[in-house]
C-alpha cells in the first residue's frame, strides 16, 4: 500500500486545512473589532449624556455686605518712649564720696540729697575765708580812721597833699580787699554746699555709677547717677514724608493725636495724647519726619527706651463704601470684588481709597448692602454659580481665613486721593 504525500492521516489535504484556519481567524477578528466598536460607542454616548445631564457644581462662598460709613485715614508707626528730662548727675567739687542718700531705682524729688562729698576741707576753707574777711575788715576800719585824721590835718595845713592822698588810697585798697574777702567767703560757702549733691529734677534714679569711697573730680565726664523724669514722658515717632501735607493740614484744623492701642486708660480706652512737636527737618536718609506727644504716664506703664506701636489719624473719608480686606482681589486689570447677583459671582472693578489692613474704602460700581465674597474666591469663576454658606457679620472687619483670587495684597496702609464714591 502506497501513501499519498498530499494528504494527512485524516484524509484532508494540508493546503485545505490552512485555508480553513485563515478563514476562521478572519471571522474571529472581525467579531472582536465589532465588539470593541460597540462597547466604545456605548461608553462615549453614555458618558456624554451623563455629563450633559449632570448640573455644574456651585462654588461654596461666604459673603459680607458692603456698608457706607465714615472711615478714618490712619498711619501706623513704631515709637520710642523718651524721658521728659534726663540728667547726668556729676560733682561740682573734687573730693571723696562719703555716702549715697538713695537706693537705686528710687523716686526722688527736686532738691533731695543724693550724695555727700567729704565736707571737712570745704568747711575749713569757709572758716579760713571768714577769718581773713574779719582781719581785713578791721584793717579797713583803721585805714578809714587814718584818712579822717589826715583830712582834718590837711584842712589846718599841717600835712602835705601827698600824705592825704596816700591815706585815702590805703582806705580804698582795704575796702576793695574786704569786698574780695566777702566773695571768697561766698565761694567757700558755695563749695561746701556743692559737697551735698542734690537732685535737680523730680524723677527716677538709675544705677549707682560711682560707689561711695571713690574720689571724684569736678565736672567729671563720668556721672554719679542718672535721674530721668518719667512723669510725664515723651513719645517720639516718625512718619513718611509723603504724609507731610496731610500732617500739616490736620494740625491746622482738628490737630493730630497719637494713640497707643496696646495701653489702656482707667476707662479701658486706648491712651491718646495730642502731637505737640513736629520736627523742622525731614531725615535725608530715612525720608521721614519726627513727631512727639506727651503722655502723663501716671501709672508708669511707659518706660524710657520702650518701643510702642503708634496710630495717628491723618484724615477722614466721609461716606466711604467699606468692604472687608479679604473681599478685594488683584487681577491683571486691577483690583475687583465679586458681588453675588442672582446666585452668580459678578466681577466689579473697584479703586482702593484707603486700606487699614482690616477694612478697605473703595470706589466702584457697588452699593451699600451688596453681598461681596470674602471666602472661597479660588473656586469662583466670573459669572459662575455660587452657593452662599452664611454671613460672617457686618462689613468693616476681615473675615478670617478668606482665600482671594490673584496676588496676595501687601500689608500696611494704602491711601489714594479720595473721590466721589460710587
What does this structure look like?
By secondary structure, the chain is an alpha+beta fold. The protein folds into four domains: 15-47; 62-69 and 317-415, Beta Barrel (conserved putative lor/sdh protein from methanococcus maripaludis s2 fold); 91-216, Helix hairpin bin (Helix Hairpins, Orthogonal Bundle), CATH 1.10.287.470; 226-316, Elongation Factor Tu (Ef-tu), domain 3 (Beta Barrel), CATH 2.40.30. Helix content is 28%, strand content 37%. The chain has four helices and 20 strands. The strands form three sheets. It has a six-stranded antiparallel beta barrel. It has a four-stranded antiparallel beta sheet with strand order 6-5-3-8. Strands 18-1-19 form a three-stranded mixed beta sheet, with no helix packed on it. Helix 2 (120-156) runs antiparallel to helix 3. The radius of gyration is 49 Å and the shape is elongated. The termini are far apart. The model is unreliable at 1-12, 393-403 and 414-422 (pLDDT under 50).
Order of helices and strands: HEEEEEHHEEEEHEEEEEEEEEEE
Q: How many individual β-strands?
A: 20
Instruction: Return the domain count.
Output: 4
Assembly state (oligomeric): single chain
Mean pLDDT figure: 85
CATH architecture of the largest domain: Orthogonal Bundle
**Poorly predicted sequence stretches spanning 5 or more consecutive residues:** 1-12, 393-403, 414-422
Cα Rg:
49 Å
Inertia-based shape: elongated
Instruction: Write the CATH fold name of the largest domain.
Output: Helix Hairpins
CATH superfamily of the largest domain: Helix hairpin bin
Measured between the Cα atoms of the first and last residue, the distance is 116 Å
- Number of helices in the DSSP assignment: 4
Content of β-strand: 35-45%
